[in-house]
Amino acid sequence: MHFANLTAPRTRVRIAILAFFVTLALFVAPWVSSPATAAVGYTVSGSTTSASGVQAAEFIELYNADTGESYEATLTANNYTVEGLAPGSYSLYALSKNTMNPPYEEDVVISDRNVTHNIEFTLLSVVKGSITDVNNPGSPEGRGVLITAEPVGGGKNWQTAVYPTDADPISYELRVAPGTYKIGFTSSAYSTTQYFPQVEELGAADVLTLEPGETVQYVNAAFPLVAGPVVRLGGTNRYETSVKITQQFAPGVERLYVATGAGFADGLSAVPAAARFDSPLLLTETNSLPSATAAEVRRLKPDQIVVVGGTGVVSAKVLNQLGAVSSVDQPVFRLEGSDRYATSRAIARDAFSSGADIAFIATGANFPDALAASPAAAHLDGPVILVNGNSNSLDSATRALLVELGVTKVKIAGGSGVVNESLKQDLAGVLGVTEVIRYSGGGRESTAVAINQLFPSSNTSFLATSTGFADSLGGAALAGFKNSPLYLSPAACVPKEVVSDISRLGSSNRVILGGEGVLSTKVFNLVSC
Fold first, then answer.
1. Does the pLDDT of residue 9 top 90, yes or no?
2. CA–CA separation, 479 vs 463, rounded Å?
3. Which residue, among 132, 319, 305, has the nearest Cα to 220 in the 3D structure?
4. What are the tens digits of pLDDT across the range 488-520?
5. Are residues 177 and 102 in contact, defined by beta-carbon separation less than 8 angstroms?
6. How, if at all, do strands 104-110 and 88-96 pair?
7. Whole-number percent of the chain with pLDDT over 70
8. Which of 77, 48, 83, 78 is nearest to 62 (CA)?
9. pTM of the model
10. Residue 103: its pLDDT value, please?
11. What is the pLDDT of residues 392-402, one digit of tens each?
12. Residue whose C-alpha is closest to residue 197's, from 278, 130, 103, 263
């Protein structure tokens, strides 16, 4: 080939014509070789607001389930835009910057035009309360209590979980969409779900209707003792310990007995009385109802509240506070006397109005003997009547009460140093009494062992401190309710005779009343002295 020919006029014309057709072919080929595709690019946009006003979104996304593609929105102030969307069905998901707004979810359909879809976030409601699960303390992650708000009529469940680290109540907060719910609690250590207020049937649960932004408190749960070797019931003070104990009772108790936490006398006589009605005993301060006690009164929903003792031990103010926080139709009533002995007789006369074949007699000067006698008296369905143990004769009021109740068997709690021998002889002479037996030992712990010989067997035994009454009063009522004995122990270790008697009963379970400062880890583990 000679390059000179390329510059010839004829050659130049041929090259120009060839170049024209090549260019034309390159331009036309795509339109000829494949079908035409319609341009896409529809837009979904709108504003974001909430029940409390304009509300910015944290994140908005459209998802096409057919293609599996997601499209994130562009956010500007309180508006959003998603561009470049093909026709089809999408799921719109929006997350508010306000944590009190639940996620927004809605379906959006694009056909042949842009779509305006405004988002209105609802305001969450809040359910608050506390959970006591003495079966689950120290649980590892994965064991605990699941709280579920179940919508009445169906819908999405709302859930949260807590993991107790000890036997103290643990608080929870559950955020839900406004609506009507029943609240359930599922413990990993308990066989069934419990519903508020402490019932095991969904149909019996309370219905909570929650408005946007509303907070409902005191939606509490307490799981009863289940089979297990040892459980400790203790709080930061005597009133919280009292609440921890009464939480073993389901709501709807027939009676709730309330006694002062500052003294023992009135509470001791109330223990067998409470047990007769399968009811708990709560402690209160003299001049003010503790907040934990008030919350527990609400939860228990008693049919009747009985305050034991005069205004000097439980004031009129506390009596009025009890009436205000409870849902009791009957007014709160008081059982009292001129002194601890008269109050003891008033309690016994009220609780055992239909009579009692057996009655315990104990000194009103100290607590240990009457404390151990109280669950035993409940076991035998009789009262504990306090007397002045140093008196040389039985007072006429107690004599009259024993005759009125029809008592035939009298059991004395304690040795002759606390209820003297002349009193025992007088008791034997009461009309209708055919038997008087003294139960005593070398000390308060051994006297409790002697009293507990009245129990032939028991699956559960309770252990209380022998040096203080505060943590034990409510526990004695629970022991009476459970038909179980109560033993006394010093803080450091358990007397050998107590260990031996618990073994005699065949008790596979033990309940320790009070924290480690009251009864040590050695007592918890039943280490003998």
1. no
2. 10
3. 132
4. 999 999 999 999 999 898 888 899 998 888 999
5. yes
6. antiparallel
7. 87
8. 83
9. 0.62
10. 84
11. 899 999 999 99
12. 130
Question: Are the C-beta atoms of residues 359 and 407 closer than 8 Å to each other?
Answer: yes
**Residue 252 zone, left/alpha/beta (φ > 0; ψ -120 to 50; rest):** left
CA separation, residue 227 to residues 246, 406, 460, 509, 524 (Å): 18, 39, 9, 7, 16
Report d(CA 267, CA 347) in Å as an integer. 10
- Name residues whose C-beta falls within 8 Å of residue 375's C-beta, 6 or more positions apart in sequence: 271, 272, 275, 462, 476, 479, 480, 484, 485, 486
The answer to whether 307 touches 258, Cβ cutoff 8 Å, is: yes
* Least reliable range by pLDDT among 132-141, 250-259, 366-375: 132-141
Closest CA to 282 of 76, 474, 141, 137: 474
The residues with which 119 forms a beta bridge, in sequence order, are 48
Residue ranges of the chain that CATH labels 2.60.40.10: 42-121
Rounded CA separation 204/198 (Å)? 10
Burial 177-195 (b: 16+ CB within 10 A, else e): bbbebbbbbbbbbbeebbb
Q: Which residues of 346-383 are buried (b: 16+ CB within 10 A; e: fewer)?
A: bbbbebbeeebebbbbbbbbbbbbbbbbbbbbbbbebb
Give the pair of three-digit tokens for residue 154.
Answer: 């169906």
| CA–CA distance, 520 with 503 (Å, rounded to integer) | 20
Cα distance between residue 94 and residue 114, in whole Å: 19
How far is it, in rounded angstroms, from Cα 245 to Cα 312? 25
Peptide bond into 224 cis (omega under 30): no
Tokens 């109050």: give the residue: 343
Q: Which candidate, 311, 352, 302, places its Cα nearest to that of 330?
A: 302
Instruction: Quickly state the pLDDT bin for 26 (edges 50, 70, 90).
Output: very low
Which fold would CATH assign to domain 125-223? Immunoglobulin-like (2.60.40)
Within 8 A by CB and 6+ apart from 20, the residues are none
DSSP 466: S
User: Which pLDDT score, from 0 to 100, does residue 137 have?
Assistant: 55
Architecture of the domain made up of 42-121:
Sandwich (2.60)
Q: Using DSSP, state whether 299 is helix, strand or coil.
A: helix
Return the CA Rg of the chain.
Answer: 38
**What burial class does residue 56 get, using C-beta atoms within 10 Å of its C-beta: 0-12 exposed, 13-18 middle, 19+ buried?**
middle
Where does CATH 2.60.40.1120 sit in the chain? 125-223
Single-letter code of the amino acid located at 59: F
